Amino acid sequence: MEKFTKLTAVAAPMPIINIDTDMIIPKDYLKTIKRTGLGEGLFAEMRYAEDGSDNSEFVLNKPAYKEAQILVAGDNFGCGSSREHAPWALLDFGIRCVISTSFADIFYNNCFKNGILPITVSQDELDKLMDDAERGANSTISVDLEAQTISGPDGGTINFDIDQARKHRLLNGIDDIGETLEKADDITAFESKLSQDRPWA
């Protein structure tokens, strides 16, 4: 998993509440268990017209936001079904960070397992970041995971909270299994001692 330390990138505004996982990646794209190639289906029902052409009104199709790596979204992002394809699609498109006032629990957990940083902020803070994101080509936002800060184009800074274990995993580019393997020597020593103390076990 790619490490997440600092990210300075264009932020795309999506001021829609209750963006569910079916909106993020429609069910038609769930036939694969691969994590690659799903970026094409990201927000497909909003992103493409009925004839398959790009919907020029959709934010990620606008020239200023085609390379966006940050989403500033409305409340309750990632609600709906528990499909892990949703963070896969975001990551495959290039989105590394989503900022909202709240996230659905399963989606929130899945983000961390796939190298995406979901950040929860207050409504006032989201309003400021949404305003920053609506500046088109000038909508660059910096996210510093180590410092737990978001910096806007005008230099204003927002602090955010994050579980320290999840922060550690993202900073080091490891998942839950990788974190367990970091303790491999301790586990081996414990098992060795246990086999000596309880050879019958």
Question: What's the short story on this structure?
Answer:
The chain has eight helices and seven strands; from the N terminus they run βααβαβαβαβββααα.
Describe it:
The longest helix is centred in the C-terminal third of the chain and has 14 residues, at 184-197. This protein has eight helices and seven strands. With 201 residues, the protein is of the alpha/beta class.
Question: Which descriptors would you attach to this protein?
Answer:
8 helices, 201 residues, seven-stranded mixed β-sheet, alpha/beta, Aconitase, domain 4, 7 strands
Identify the CATH class: Alpha Beta
Largest sheet: 7 strands, mixed
What name goes with the CATH superfamily? Aconitase, domain 4
Order of H and E elements? EHHEHEHEHEEEHHH
What share of the residues does DSSP label as strand, in percent? 15-25%
Global outline: globular
Q: Kindly give the count of domains.
A: 1
Instruction: Supply the CATH architecture.
Output: Alpha-Beta Barrel
| Number of extended strands | 7
The helix count comes to: 8
Residue stretches low in confidence (pLDDT < 50, at least 5 long) are none
Show the helix and strand layout:
Elements: E1 6-14, H1 21-24, H2 44-47, E2 70-73, H3 85-93, E3 97-100, H4 105-113, E4 117-120, H5 123-133, E5 140-144, E6 149-151, E7 157-159, H6 164-172, H7 176-181, H8 184-197
Parallel strand pairs: 1-2, 2-3, 3-4
Antiparallel strand pairs: 1-5, 5-6, 6-7
